[in-house]
């Protein structure tokens, strides 16, 4: 049955049906998962992949954006390994587990399950999901070591192996995993949830196949792939032909204190109906010693998610990615090979890649692209011993920051990372669970980049260790350079970390990265996360909007004049129109 | 008490478009109904118009129960009273920073306005820790100074919101006493008083919303009470809360936030009561209106309740409310063809203005309602009554041009596709709601109401595998009926958040007893006749290391730790099909609801047995072609003429004043003595 023979209504209904299957998998995974990272922060994703090449057929709408393209890589590699005899062939009821970053992954904590869906003794398609495990072993709890120099230091690395065989979990493999990770007794809940989500998907997909017939659905999948490509091409047709360049910088790799550069040239090529965007990262920095390397799957996924932020209406599928051609960035830190450490790829490097895409396309798509967002997950980990409760603890404070200004408004304040969708935990819950006391949780005043539409504001928090001993680690970014403005807008304020130990202020040598800094009771950590970049020239901002920001204490009177050229004075505070005109006109 | 004392009651519900009224005289079984246009500027005008339309003699009434969207609209349109916040030093921005989110997964943009602007958020020195121990004592002078400053700034309401006040409210209480001495009105909200639960953003926003709508609600109720008094009414006005219970208008403003989501709650209450009386206690309610559809789950005639509802982006109101989820499809949802050549229905809506093409108000884009009209499901004859002079041919032309041509279909084919796509989407959304609440839709009946609900219900039921559809006697006044039926209800939550094995059973039992006593006192303060009092107790629990909780209902208020552990394991397995043995358990929240049942009016009085035909055939008022894949000549019945024990098979169209019921070919219709219709869905053979 050819795709053309399918009527568009059946096609639309099957598309909705496939999407529904994935959304129900996402829901099943989150609801049953044990860890808050998955259950509440939704650090997971579920999808359906082609039997032949792992091409993405559909993915849950609520999945973490960074996983938008990774599982089609890992499924593709798994299928190839099975064909080559490197991995045991599947039987009905088998589920593979894999977290190897170099086999289509992100960092080690992102554990992928993959399961074939069988129809009449043959594999119709694959289902796969990814869940972020709170720990995967390695030198630091949680896996984000800022100073790792090899992947072995980052944790347990699993090649694709069958964790479930004919429907039963392999207790021996599970025992090996449990012996290599922290708090293993809680993992069984996540493992069961992750497998259960695939089962839910299988049941729901089977119902769809029974209803419409395998051949019709297969034809629809093929046709939907073509149409998604067409839809993406129609979207990128809005980009005038040409080459658009941008660069973005990572403060350091955590080991060598030098910035890493992402250099990107986006070429809009192709004739009418064959439009494509070519992403060339040539000239980017070489693979680095520390964990700020990206693996290929993450680099691809970062490009896809950035484009989807720009065109949110295009469905997520392999077809939509087809017109996006990413040249393999061999020899750069964006295509790291074994044994380069990679823990920073999903949380930080991915966001800097997305930023490069935004910056490159801002002038071509000024109505759609925002100035740079804070673009860091702001990972602050504190591990130690709580004498009052007589137990060890590891806490994470992941923080948001300001978003970039955009064509129709200012940036959002304290938004979550570009690649995430998760909520930050409440301070009250943090203090219930860990021996810390927050002294401040506030808007980082003055941090929004100036512009016709200013950037959103970052977060300014400070906390104190109350008792016991602890070690602080930071994996953040944008400490050296703030998120750039676009179309003449100013940069957002950079990330700032200060550790007040015994009354003295310590600033990490790498600004945004440090590992295992010892803290004593009374010591404090203060973090100011980046503000978003500004959009358009600051001199074009409505003086009344500047006055309002000052009235609300977001900027000082001096900043209003220095950043926006708006002179304020009088009581009540007002705009000095004449002085402003002189200041701006001059 | 006014009136005859026979319990003459008025239920009146103000919705976005219509104000519905039901007036019941339990003595005689007489009933009056009215449906008039809502008057958003002053909802009391619409209420009085409904009373007039129903010719209700206010002087003879004993009780008025009112559902209002005054606070809903104030929240959604951000029309709050000028409100100030006094909070812990270092934390005034909690209300503006939120939980680090964006409105949608893709698209790095968004707008967010905090409920209270930054210049009206003041800090004072004070601090509790998570155990409720004082870290920094409250600076009482600073507090008084902050209060005075907010007054000078023109604030009408004030919120005191301190960190960890749920664990130890002594600072908030002290602040409340100081403010009582200087604040000129009663609009002082203490964060812990409304919600004694951890999570500072959610508790703070809930408190801020409460303060911001208190004066708005109080002013409205004053206006309404005065108007009712002018009309001769001397009794009590009860106001419906989002939990589906009611509270006296004298007390309701104190916890005004609880009324914010009351609109959809009353419909669910009516559904639960109707289902219980009809012997169909497990229901998914399906209320399809012009722009959206509300869905809720009822198990054992008890609506699911949630305390974690977000009424708008980053606007959580964490008080217990009937868990009504809104899915973005209504009669006005617009159909379009995407650049991929696929058909999409919604989420864009034509709304009430310009509305669907068939409204004749200038709408040009094809909607679900238009499709229903082209397919004969809605009466095309009604177009004649439309002002703009729209003809069916105009609707057909729009479908052909905008949808038919790109899809290769004629107008009717396009309309059928729109309905099919809309049903697919809505069924998917209903599945997500039920699955997220741990329920399989096949175990439920669909309760269809709202203007468009009964039109799509059988198709949706078929899509979902739901075996039957219950259409109540008066689908269009379900919300007003819910008002008339609602009980008095007070809910209490206290956060504990400790491992279960460290819980002191005596203290736990004392907490339940205190919640119960507080509820009893509130019921005692009501001036309404209450029948039986009911008490619901539950515990929110989780495994240590988790952040989401599971609500565990209890059958008594003196559970042992052992009972709690085993009940939790049962409920967890029931919901997630996962058993986790040996993992320690946390007790998070202690919850009680104290319910004062009002004497329930007889639902059988909702219908008028007079005028009923003796046989189904005599209730037929016409015949028209209706498109069910192909055109089928379909009988049209008048609902009010159908015999109560009617039993016949589809296809059929059943029309009544406020809705149209579509019965697909083969589905079975059964009437019951209360005037409900039960539609049995016949499973399709094959595809």
Topology:
The complex is a heterodimer of chains A (586) and B (687).
Chain A: H1 8-32, H2 36-39, E1 44-50, E2 56-59, H3 70-83, E3 95-98, E4 110-119, E5 122-132, E6 161-165, E7 168-169, H4 171-178, H5 187-212, H6 214-236, E8 242-250, E9 260-269, E10 276-280, H7 296-310, H8 318-321, E11 324-326, H9 345-361, E12 379-386, E13 391-397, H10 427-433, E14 436-443, E15 459-465, E16 469-475, E17 496-501, E18 504-506, E19 513-519, E20 524-528, H11 543-551, H12 557-564, E21 568-569, E22 574-575, H13 577-585
Helix pairs in contact in A: 1-5, 1-6, 3-7, 5-6, 7-9
Chain B: E1 9-14, E2 18-25, E3 30-37, H1 43-53, E4 63-67, H2 70-76, E5 83-88, H3 94-97, E6 121-124, E7 127-128, E8 134-136, H4 140-152, E9 157-161, H5 170-180, E10 188-190, H6 191-194, H7 200-230, E11 236-240, E12 246-248, H8 262-278, E13 283-288, E14 293-299, E15 302-303, E16 305-306, E17 309-312, E18 315-317, E19 321-322, E20 325-327, E21 333-337, E22 343-349, H9 368-374, H10 392-407, H11 411-436, E23 445-449, H12 453-464, E24 468-471, H13 478-485, E25 488-499, H14 505-524, E26 533-543, E27 550-554, H15 561-576, E28 585-596, E29 620-628, E30 630-638, E31 647-649, E32 652-656, E33 659-663, E34 668-671, E35 677-680
Parallel strand pairs in B: 1-4, 4-11, 5-6, 5-9, 9-10, 13-23, 23-24, 30-32
Antiparallel strand pairs in B: 1-2, 2-3, 7-8, 11-12, 13-14, 14-15, 14-20, 16-19, 17-18, 21-22, 24-35, 25-28, 26-27, 26-28, 29-30, 31-34, 32-33, 34-35
Helix pairs in contact in B: 1-7, 2-7, 4-5, 8-13, 9-10, 9-11, 10-11, 11-12
């Amino acid at each position: 049955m050819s795709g053309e023979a399918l009527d568009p209504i059946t096609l639309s209904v099957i598309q909705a049906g496939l999407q529904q299957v994935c959304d129900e998998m996402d829901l099943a995974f989150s609801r049953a998962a044990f860890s808050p990272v998955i259950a509440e922060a939704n650090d997971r994703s579920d999808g359906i992949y082609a039997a032949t090449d792992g091409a993405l057929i559909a993915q849950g709408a609520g999945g973490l954006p960074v996983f938008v393209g990774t599982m089609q890589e890992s499924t593709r590699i798994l299928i190839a390994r099975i064909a080559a005899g490197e991995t045991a062939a599947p039987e009905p009821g088998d589920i593979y587990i894999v977290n190897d970053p170099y086999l289509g992954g992100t960092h080690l904590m992102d554990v992928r399950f993959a399961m074939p869906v069988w129809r009449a003794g043959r594999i119709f398609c694959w289902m796969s999901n990814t869940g972020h495990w709170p720990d995967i072993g390695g030198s630091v709890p949680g896996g984000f070591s800022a100073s790792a120099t090899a992947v072995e230091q980052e944790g347990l690395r699993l090649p694709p192996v069958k964790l479930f065989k004919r429907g039963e979990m392999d207790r021996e493999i599970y025992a090996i995993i449990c012996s290599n990770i922290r708090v293993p007794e809680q993992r069984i809940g996540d493992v069961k949830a992750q497998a259960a989500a695939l089962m839910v998907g299988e049941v729901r997909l089977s119902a769809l196949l029974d209803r419409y017939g395998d051949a019709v659905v297969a034809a629809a999948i093929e046709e939907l792939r073509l149409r998604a490509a067409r839809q993406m091409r129609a979207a990128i047709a809005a980009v005038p032909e040409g080459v658009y360049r941008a660069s973005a910088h990572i403060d350091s790799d955590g080991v060598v204190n030098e910035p890493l550069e992402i250099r990107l040239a986006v070429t809009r090529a192709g004739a009418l109906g064959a439009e494509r965007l070519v992403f060339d990262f040539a000239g980017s920095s070489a693979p680095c010693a520390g964990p700020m390397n990206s693996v290929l799957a993450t680099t691809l996924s970062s490009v896809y998610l950035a484009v989807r932020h720009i065109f949110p209406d295009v469905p997520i599928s392999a077809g939509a990615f087809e017109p996006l051609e990413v040249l393999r960035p061999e020899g750069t830190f964006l295509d790291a090979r074994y044994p380069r450490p990679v823990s920073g790829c999903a949380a930080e490097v991915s966001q800097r890649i997305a930023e490069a895409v935004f910056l490159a396309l801002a002038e071509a798509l000024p109505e759609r692209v925002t100035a740079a967002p804070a673009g860091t997950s702001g990972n602050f980990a504190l591990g130690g011993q709580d004498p009052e409760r007589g137990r060890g603890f590891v806490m994470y404070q992941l923080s948001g920051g300001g978003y970039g200004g955009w064509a129709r408004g200012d940036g959002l304040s304290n938004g979550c990372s570009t690649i995430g969708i998760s909520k930050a935990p409440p301070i009250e819950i943090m203090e219930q669970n860990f021996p810390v006391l927050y002294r401040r949780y506030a808007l980082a005043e003055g941090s929004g980049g100036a512009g016709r539409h200013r950037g959103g504001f970052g977060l300014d928090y400070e906390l104190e260790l109350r008792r016991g001993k602890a070690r602080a680690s930071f994996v953040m970014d944008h400490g050296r350079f703030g998120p750039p403005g676009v179309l003449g807008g100013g940069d957002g304020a950079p990330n700032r970390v200060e550790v007040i130990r015994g009354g003295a202020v310590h600033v990490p040598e790498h600004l945004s990265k440090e590992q295992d800094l010892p803290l004593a009771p009374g010591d404090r950590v203060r973090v100011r996360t980046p503000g978003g970049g500004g959009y358009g020239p600051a001199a074009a901002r409505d003086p009344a909007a500047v006055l309002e920001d000052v009235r609300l204490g977001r900027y000082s009177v001096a900043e209003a004049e220095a950043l926006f050229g708006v002179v304020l004075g009088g009581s009540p505070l007002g705009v000095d129109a004449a002085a402003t005109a002189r200041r701006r006109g001059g | 008490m006014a009136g005859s004392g026979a319990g003459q009651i008025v239920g009146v519900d103000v919705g976005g478009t219509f104000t519905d009224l039901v007036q019941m005289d339990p003595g005689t079984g007489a009933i009056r109904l009215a449906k008039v246009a809502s008057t958003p500027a002053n909802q009391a005008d619409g209420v009085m118009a409904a009373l007039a339309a129903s010719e209700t003699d206010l002087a003879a009434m004993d009780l008025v129960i009112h559902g209002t969207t005054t606070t809903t609209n104030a929240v959604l349109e951000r029309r709050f009273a000028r409100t100030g916040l006094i909070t812990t030093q270092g934390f005034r921005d909690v209300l503006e920073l939120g939980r680090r989110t964006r409105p949608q997964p893709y698209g790095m943009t968004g707008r967010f306005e905090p409920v209270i602007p930054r210049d009206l958020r003041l800090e004072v020195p004070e601090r509790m820790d998570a155990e409720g121990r004082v870290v920094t004592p409250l600076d009482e002078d600073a507090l008084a100074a902050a209060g005075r400053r907010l007054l000078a700034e023109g604030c009408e309401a004030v919120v005191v919101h301190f960190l960890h006040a749920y664990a130890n409210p002594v600072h908030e209480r002290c602040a409340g006493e100081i403010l009582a001495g200087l604040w000129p009105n009663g609009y002082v909200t203490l964060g812990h008083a409304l919600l004694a639960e951890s999570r500072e953003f959610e508790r703070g926003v809930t408190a801020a919303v409460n303060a911001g709508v208190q004066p708005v609600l109080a002013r409205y109720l004053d206006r309404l009470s005065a108007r009712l008094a002018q009309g001769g009414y001397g009794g009590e006005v009860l106001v419906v809360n989002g939990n589906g219970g009611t509270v006296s208008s004298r007390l309701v403003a104190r916890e005004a936030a609880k009324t914010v989501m009351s609109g959809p709650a009353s419909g669910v209450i009516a559904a639960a009561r109707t289902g219980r009386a009809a012997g169909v206690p497990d229901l998914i309610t399906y209320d399809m209106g012009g722009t959206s559809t509300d869905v809720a789950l009822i198990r054992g005639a008890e609506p699911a309740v949630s305390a974690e509802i977000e009424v708008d982006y980053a606007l959580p109101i964490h008080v217990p409310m009937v868990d009504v989820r809104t899915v973005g499809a209504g009669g006005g949802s617009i159909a379009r063809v995407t650049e991929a050549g696929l058909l999409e229905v919604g989420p864009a809506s034509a709304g009430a203005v310009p509305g669907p093409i068939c409204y004749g108000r200038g709408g040009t884009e094809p909607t679900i309602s238009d499709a229903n009209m082209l397919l004969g499901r809605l009466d095309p004859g009604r177009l004649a009554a439309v002002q703009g002079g729209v003809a069916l041919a105009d609707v057909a032309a729009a479908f052909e041009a905008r949808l038919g041509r790109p899809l290769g279909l004629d107008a009717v084919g396009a309309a059928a596709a729109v309905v099919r796509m809309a049903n697919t989407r809505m069924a998917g959304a209903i599945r997500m709601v039920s699955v997220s609440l741990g329920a399989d839709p096949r175990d439920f009946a669909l309760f269809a109401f709202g203007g468009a609900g009964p039109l799509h219900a059988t198709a949706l039921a078929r899509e979902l595998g739901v075996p039957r559809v219950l259409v109540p006697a008066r689908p269009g006044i379900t919300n007003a009926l819910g008002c008339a039926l609602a009980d008095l209800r007070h809910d209490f939550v206290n956060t504990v958040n400790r491992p279960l094995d460290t819980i002191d059973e005596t203290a736990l039992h004392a907490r339940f007893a205190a919640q119960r006593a507080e509820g009893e006192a509130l019921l005692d303060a009501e001036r309404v006749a209450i029948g039986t009092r009911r008490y619901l107790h539950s515990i929110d629990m989780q495994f240590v290391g988790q952040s989401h909780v599971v609500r565990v209902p209890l059958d008594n208020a003196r559970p042992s730790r052992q009972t709690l552990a085993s009940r939790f394991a049962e409920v967890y397995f029931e919901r997630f099909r996962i058993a986790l043995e040996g993992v320690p358990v946390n007790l998070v929240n202690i919850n009680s609801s104290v319910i004062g049942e009002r004497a329930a009016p007889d639902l059988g009085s909702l219908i008028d047995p007079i005028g009923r035909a003796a046989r189904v055939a005599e209730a037929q008022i016409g015949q028209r072609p209706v498109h069910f894949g192909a055109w089928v000549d379909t009988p049209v019945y008048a609902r009010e003429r159908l015999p109560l024990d009617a039993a016949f098979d589809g296809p059929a169209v059943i029309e009544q004043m406020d809705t149209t019921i579509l019965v697909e070919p083969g589905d079975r219709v059964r009437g019951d003595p209360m005037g409900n219709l039960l539609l049995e869905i016949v499973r399709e053979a094959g595809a």
